[in-house]
Amino acid sequence: AQSVSQHNHHVILSEAASLELGCNYSYGGTVNLFWYVQYPGQHLQLLLKYFSGDPLVKGIKGFEAEFIKSKFSFNLRKPSVQWSDTAEYFCAVNSENYGQNFVFGPGTRLSVLP
Amino acid sequence: KAGVTQTPRYLIKTRGQQVTLSCSPISGHRSVSWYQQTPGQGLQFLFEYFSETQRNKGNFPGRFSGRQFSNSRSEMNVSTLELGDSALYLCASSLAGGTQETQYFGPGTRLLVL
């Protein structure tokens, strides 16, 4: 079955530290990759997405992610986190080969200390 | 443009009862997907509707059902509630449910089964 894993359950950083959240998926073939964020008390919202082309994609709020096909990975990065980045981050994958539904990773909770 | 709305926001039911949750997508969006979010299982896809037809279904028992109306509004029904059905139920809409489309999530309905 298709699955998405995220390396860390909970990450704690100080402001200005660099962030990298890992995401791996177990699909074969062509995939579409997404990172969603859920700020405390808010809706899930899209940070960035990758379909094809340049494997380094930029999203909102200074986030970027790199697709490495050979590693089945789509890691999220931010050079310098802020307290306002405290949230839960979800990696998600879908593929035409497996229907249109998204498969989400378990999420990584990020706590940024001021 | 108004976002995805879900009603009710909170619900308390007892085992054996049934419940109906409602979702109004963003105006113009014709695809509505439902997800169950729990601390243990994360976000799991329930089903997706497009033009009043269920197009995709996740791995949930038949107690979980849904429908979509001609105005794209969708309802989800859970019959014979079990304690394990306690969760946040999220609805997401997109224009046509294509795999490369962004899904826009609502605030969710938090269901507690006692």
Task: Report what the structure shows.
The complex is a heterodimer of chains A (114) and B (114). Chain A is mainly beta and 114 residues long. Chain A is built from no helices and 12 strands. The model of chain A has no long low-confidence stretch (mean pLDDT 92). In chain B, the strands form 2 sheets. In chain B, strands 2, 4, 5, 6, 9, 10 and 11 form a 7-stranded mixed β-sheet that branches. In chain B, strands 1-3-8-7 form a 4-stranded antiparallel β-sheet, with no helix packed on it. Chain B is built from no helices and 11 strands. Chain B is mostly beta strands and 114 residues long. The chains are: A mainly beta (114), B mainly beta (114). The A-B interface holds A 32, 36, 43-46, 49, 51, 90, 92, 94-96, 99-107 and B 3-4, 33, 35, 42-45, 48, 55-56, 58, 90, 92, 97-100, 102-103, 105-108.
Low-pLDDT segments, ≥5 res of chain A: none
Number of discrete helical segments of chain B = 0
User: Low-confidence stretches of chain B at least 5 residues in length (pLDDT < 50)?
Assistant: none
Number of helices of chain A: 0
Q: What is the count of β-strands of chain B?
A: 11
Largest sheet features of chain A:
6 strands, mixed
Describe the structure in brief:
The complex is a heterodimer of chains A (114) and B (114). By secondary structure, chain A is mainly β. Helices cover 0% and strands 51% of the residues of chain A.
